[in-house]
Amino acid sequence: MTTEETALSSEAELHAELKALFRRAHANGIDVEGGWECRNGTEHPDWDVIVTEVEKNGESE
After folding, report:
1. What is the secondary structure of 5-48 as a DSSP string?
2. What integer pLDDT is reported at residue 7 of this predicted model?
3. Sign of CA dihedral 38, 31, 18, 15
4. CA distance 20 to 26
5. Is 48 in contact with 34 (CB distance < 8 Å)?
6. Separation of alpha carbons 28 and 6, rounded Å
7. Segments in the chain below pLDDT 70
8. Tell me, what's the pLDDT at 10?
9. Distance (Å, whole) CA 51 – CA 23
């Protein structure tokens, strides 16, 4: 599988990309809950990513 980088220009686009990523992972049996360090070399900042499942409310998409 190859990955194409998509230029993101808004927080809404970032949210949509994350939602799509989490849905694909869940659909393929990957547990997306947990924490990961995202190391990016010297050119970009590093991030600590923490994902927790939340209780659904009546307004979930």
Report:
1. -----SHHHHHHHHHHHHHHHHHTT----EEEEE--TTTS--EE
2. 87
3. negative
4. 10
5. no
6. 22
7. 1-4, 60-61
8. 96
9. 13
What residues contact 25, with CB distance under 8 A and at least 6 apart? 32
Which tokens is 32 given? 């997306």
Residue at token pair 């970032």: 14
Residue 21 identity (one-letter amino acid): L
- Please state, as a whole number, how many other Cβ atoms lie within 10 Å of the Cβ of residue 53: 10
Task: Give 37's strand partners.
Answer: 48
Q: State the CB neighbour count (10 A cutoff) for residue 19.
A: 11
pLDDT number for residue 44: 94
